[in-house]
Write a structure and sequence with these properties.
Elements lengths: L14 H5 L3 H14 L6 H14 L3 E5 L2 H11 L7 E4 L6 H8 L3 E4 L11 H7 L4 E7 L9 H10 L2 E5 L20 E5 L13 E5 L2 H10 L21 H10 L3 H18 L19 E4 L4 H10 L29 H9 E4 L7 H16 L2
Parallel strand pairs: 2-3, 2-4, 4-5, 5-6
Antiparallel strand pairs: 1-7, 6-7, 8-9
Helix pairs in contact: 2-9, 3-9, 4-5, 4-8, 10-13
The structure holds pyridoxal-5'-phosphate.
Pyridoxal-5'-phosphate binds next to helix 4 and helix 5.
Length: about 375
């Protein structure tokens, strides 16, 4: 039996604390929706979509029921279906691969860059073939990967370049451009621990292409272009009015929260040097959804040691997507994507959220020094 652990003194995420200063505004927004009688799509969702597009510096934002459904709609909208291949990263949350499979296509994994853990663009280009219908990049932990080479290749082949930006709202790439502005489209998630978290599930698709945005609006209502007329199948991928109203209260606070995440990441960088841990590269455009270190040896013992010291940490991600049991039929085996596989054995995500104060960060650093130093 495991030793019972005290609830962590430094929580991994703390959405309730993030909301504390403006709970009244959230309650007022919820009350407005409750009294309105409009609970699905409608004016709150439309207003949120306008404000989100503006905040993201992109032409169109379409609200979706989750980041997962945003990915699925985006793939379908890009024409991905049975017989197609989609080149993507093996180092991501399961939804990235799950959405490709649900679209009826085959995920083709290229290995990641050892430093950033983002898809290696050269490796991805090498996997593009005659059946490739789209490339789906993942901006893992809030860091944009350089997409210029992939943009050129996808344009030349007439295929879509799509972004899983679930962890990367507001992130800026090496070319100085925001997510959703340089590709066919980008999917966002409003899962509560994402940088812009709802009080429940939600997501969005960002795009500069008005026709693609119209396709997203159609696919989220069972492919209907008007009442009872369905050119496509689509699904129920709608964002609730209640979530939209709550997200409208939170959206103006996102820049301050991103700044807080960047300050916390900088404090970790300073405090964790010289411990033999692999630190994530510094990057001014990164929005730090997670601060993930590499523990070359004894990662799981390190996690347990932190827990004993009252510090919550998590493993994102313990298993690369190509080795997930649900993908067994694709016939992958260990050793195929060594960089991603090694990362899965070494990564450890530390607490990082807008309510994390300097004292808590210093506690995490001190605990990690103790655990790693005493190993
Ligand atoms: C959270 C996440 C998703 C899924 O978003 P949901 O809103 O939870 O459906 C997809 N991809 C990545 C990389 C994520 O982190």
């Amino acid at each position: 039996m495991n030793d019972p652990l005290p609830s962590p003194t430094v929580p991994f995420a703390d959405p309730a604390a993030d909301h504390q200063a403006f709970t009244d505004e959230l309650l007022a927004a919820a009350g407005r929706v409750i009294r309105s009688g409009r609970y699905i799509l409608g004016p709150e969702v439309e207003a949120f979509e306008r404000e989100l597009a503006e905040a993201c510096g992109v032409g169109h934002a379409v609200g979706m029921s989750s980041g997962t459904d945003a990915l699925l709609a985006m793939l379908a909208g890009a024409g991905v279906g049975p017989g197609d291949e989609v080149v993507t990263s093996p180092f991501s949350f399961f939804a990235t691969a799950g959405a490709i499979l649900r679209a009826g296509a085959r995920p083709v994994f290229a290995d990641v860059d050892a430093a950033t853990l983002n898809l290696d663009p050269a490796a991805a280009l090498a996997k593009v073939g005659p059946r490739t219908r789209a490339v789906l990049v993942v901006h893992i932990f809030g860091r944009c990967l350089p997409t210029a080479a992939l943009e050129a290749e996808c344009r030349a082949r007439g295929i879509a370049l799509l972004e899983d930006a679930a962890q990367a709202i507001g992130a800026v790439g090496p070319d100085g451009r925001l997510v959703g502005t340089r590709t066919t489209a980008a999917a966002l998630s409003f899962f509560p621990t994402k940088n812009l978290g709802g009080l429940g599930d939600g997501g969005a698709v960002l795009t500069e292409d008005a026709a693609f945005a119209a396709t997203m609006r159609r696919l989220r209502v069972h492919g209907a272009d008007r009442k009872n007329h369905h050119p496509d199948v689509g699904g129920n991928f709608r964002l609730d009015a209640l979530q939209a109203a709550l997200l409208r209260v939170k959206l103006p606070r996102l820049p301050a929260w991103t700044a807080a995440r960047r300050r916390a990441a900088a404090r970790y960088h300073t405090g964790l040097r010289g411990l033999g841990l692999g630190l994530p590269p510094e990057d001014p455009g990164c929005v730090w959804n997670q601060f993930v270190v590499r523990v070359p040896e004894g990662r799981d013992r390190t996690l347990a040691g932190l827990a004993r010291a009252g510090v919550a940490s998590e493993i994102y991600y313990p298993t690369p997507l190509h080795l997930q049991p649900a993908l067994r039929a694709l016939g992958h085996g260990p050793g195929e994507l060594p960089v991603a596989e090694r990362a899965c054995a070494e990564v450890l995500a530390l607490p990082l959220h807008p309510s994390l104060d300097d004292r808590s960060i210093d506690r995490v650093i001190a605990a990690l020094r103790d655990v790693v130093g005493g190993r």
